[in-house]
Design brief:
With 454 residues, the chain is of the alpha/beta class. The chain folds into 3 domains: 83 residues, no CATH class; 65 residues, no CATH class; 230 residues, 3-Layer(aba) Sandwich (Rossmann fold), CATH 3.40.50.1000. Helix content is 48%, strand content 13%. The chain contains 15 helices and 15 strands. The strands form 5 sheets. A 6-stranded parallel beta sheet has the order 12-11-6-13-14-15, sandwiched between helices. The chain has a 3-stranded antiparallel beta sheet with strand order 3-4-5. Helix 1 crosses helix 5. It starts with 17 loop residues before the first strand and ends with a helix.
Length: 454
C-alpha cells in the first residue's frame, strides 16, 4: 500500500519526490507550496497559522520564532519553517544534477595540465640555457645552488598562492551555486502560483481574495466590541476528528459496518474539493449539510437531530481553555457597560459554539455569538460583520473587532469599517493587512480601551 503525503494526501507513487519524516511525510510539491506561502503568496487552503500549537515534527511553537504552515483543506499536520528548510536540503541532496555539473566544470579547470612548460620539463622549472648561464657566470658551485634554491622557493610561494586562489574560487562558486539553487526553487514556485492565479476558479471567481479596505487614520472610542472566538477568547488545544467519529458511531445505525477511519477519509475527500472553493468565495458550509453528504451515502443514520449529532462530535473531538487573562478583561469591559458579541469563522453552528462558551463560564458576557456556518459568509467578507453591527444597534465605525488572525480578523474589521485590533499574544508575523493597534495581552487591551473611553 503506497504511503501518502500528509499535507495533500497524494500517494508517493504519484508525486515527484517525497520526504519520509519522523511524524509525517511531505512531498516536494507541498514543500514548494509552503515556501511560496512563506514568501507571501496566496495559495487556496494553505495558511500561515496564528495558533500557538506545536510543529507536528519538531514540537516548536510559533512563539519560538518559526512560522507554522498547514493545509486546512485536508486537516493536515503543522510544519514549521525550520523543518521546511531541512526538508528542502534533503530534496536538494536528492537532486544533484546541477551541482554535479558545476563541480565537474570546476574540477576540469583545476585538473588541466600546465601548458606553459614543455612536457619533458615538468619536473624542472628552469630553462636549460638559463641554468648553463648561471653555472658559467657564477663565482662557484655554492653560488649556483643558492640561485637554484631561491628560484625553487619563489616557485613554492607562487604555487601556494595559486592553491589559495583555487580554494577561494571553489568557495565562491559553491556559494553562488547555493544562491542559484535557492533562486531556482523560488522561480519554480512563483511560476506555479502564477499559473494557478491565471486559472479562473470553477465558480468563475478569481483565485485570490480582494484587497481589504484602506485603514482609517483614527481609532474611535468603542461603543461596542466584537471578538473572534478560537485562539482569541478560547485557546484551541486539540482537534481529534477520529475520536469524534468514533463517538458518533456509538449512537448510529451502521448496517454496513463502516469504520471511523473510512468515514474520515470520505470527509477528507469532500474537504479537498470544497474547502478551496469556500476560501475563494468566502462562503461557509453548514455542518448539517456536510453530515448529509458524509453519512447518507453510507446508509448511516441517527435517532437524534443534526444539532445533537454535531454536539456529540464536538464534545469528543475538541478541547479548549481560556486565553490567559480573558475573564478579567471581560469583567472590566462589562463594568464599563460596553456591549459585546462574537463573530467566528467555523464549520460548526453557533449553538454548538455557545455551548462551549457556557462550559467555559464565559457565555453571559456576550449579547450574541455568530458562527459563519449559520450566516452563509465567512470573514473577511464584510456582510457578516455588518450584520453583527446591526445586532449591536451601532454603526460600524463605533465598533472594534478583535481577533488573533490578521488575514481573517483584521481584514474583516477593515472591510466593514470597524476598528481593527490584532490580538497577537504569541507574537506571530503579520500575514494580513495592518491593524489599527496590535496588543500582546488582554491586560494591554484593557489599558487601550480605558484610555480611549476616558
Amino acid at each position: 500500500m503506497p504511503q501518502r503525503c500528509s499535507f495533500c494526501r497524494v500517494p508517493d507513487n504519484q508525486v515527484d519526490r517525497i520526504v519520509y519524516g519522523t511524524n509525517f511525510n511531505i512531498c516536494s510539491d507541498c514543500i514548494r507550496t509552503c515556501l511560496a506561502v512563506l514568501d507571501g503568496e496566496t495559495v487556496d487552503g494553505w495558511d500561515i497559522t496564528t495558533s500557538p500549537q506545536r510543529c507536528d515534527n519538531c514540537a516548536r511553537r510559533p512563539s519560538e520564532g518559526y512560522r507554522h504552515l498547514l493545509n486546512r483543506a485536508t486537516y493536515s499536520p503543522r510544519v514549521c519553517e525550520r523543518c521546511l528548510r531541512f526538508y528542502t536540503e534533503v530534496l536538494l541532496k536528492e537532486m544533484p544534477t546541477l551541482e554535479e555539473e558545476l563541480q565537474n566544470i570546476i574540477q576540469s579547470v583545476f585538473d588541466a595540465p600546465d601548458t606553459d612548460a614543455p612536457e619533458d620539463n615538468k619536473g624542472e622549472t628552469f630553462d636549460p640555457d638559463m641554468r648553463q648561464s648561471m653555472q658559467t657566470e657564477g663565482d662557484g658551485k655554492e653560488t649556483v645552488e643558492e640561485e637554484i634554491q631561491r628560484a625553487r622557493d619563489k616557485e613554492f610561494d607562487t604555487s601556494k598562492e595559486k592553491s589559495d586562489v583555487e580554494s577561494e574560487m571553489m568557495q565562491h562558486m559553491q556559494e553562488e551555486l547555493a544562491k542559484q539553487t535557492t533562486e531556482k526553487i523560488k522561480d519554480v514556485t512563483r511560476q506555479a502560483i502564477q499559473e494557478l492565479e491565471r486559472r479562473p476558479s470553477r465558480a468563475g471567481q478569481p483565485a485570490t481574495q480582494p484587497e481589504p479596505a484602506p485603514l482609517a487614520t483614527t481609532l474611535l472610542k468603542p461603543l461596542g466590541i466584537l471578538f473572534d472566538l478560537g485562539d482569541t477568547l478560547l485557546r484551541h488545544l486539540r482537534f481529534d476528528p477520529e475520536a469524534g467519529t468514533e463517538a458518533l458511531l456509538k449512537i448510529a445505525k451502521n448496517p454496513e459496518g463502516h469504520s471511523a477511519e473510512s468515514i474520515n477519509k470520505r470527509i477528507e475527500t469532500i474537504n479537498l474539493e470544497l474547502v478551496p472553493r469556500r476560501e475563494q468565495a468566502q462562503i461557509e458550509f453548514h455542518p448539517h449539510i456536510i453530515q448529509r453528504h458524509v453519512y447518507e451515502p453510507l446508509n448511516i443514520t441517527f435517532d437524534r437531530d443534526h444539532a445533537a449529532v454535531e454536539r456529540v462530535f464536538w464534545r469528543n473531538s475538541m478541547q479548549w481553555e481560556h486565553e490567559p487573562g480573558v475573564e478579567d478583561m471581560l469583567q472590566k469591559l462589562q463594568s464599563h457597560n460596553i456591549p459585546m458579541g462574537i463573530v467566528s469563522n467555523a464549520a460548526f453552528s453557533g449553538t454548538t459554539l455557545m455551548w462551549e462558551m457556557e462550559q467555559q463560564g464565559l457565555a453571559d458576557y456576550f449579547h450574541f455569538l455568530m458562527s459563519s456556518a449559520d450566516y452563509w459568509v465567512r470573514k473577511p467578507h464584510p456582510l457578516i460583520m455588518n450584520t453583527a453591527a446591526a445586532k449591536l444597534s451601532l454603526s460600524s465605525e463605533n465598533i472594534w473587532y478583535v481577533g488573533n488572525s490578521a488575514h481573517y480578523d483584521v481584514a474583516a474589521a477593515r472591510n466593514a469599517g470597524m476598528g481593527a485590533i490584532w490580538y497577537n499574544r504569541v507574537d506571530d508575523p503579520n500575514d494580513g493587512p495592518e491593524p489599527h493597534v496590535e496588543v500582546k495581552s488582554w491586560a494591554e487591551f484593557v489599558d487601550l480601551v480605558e484610555r480611549c473611553i476616558g
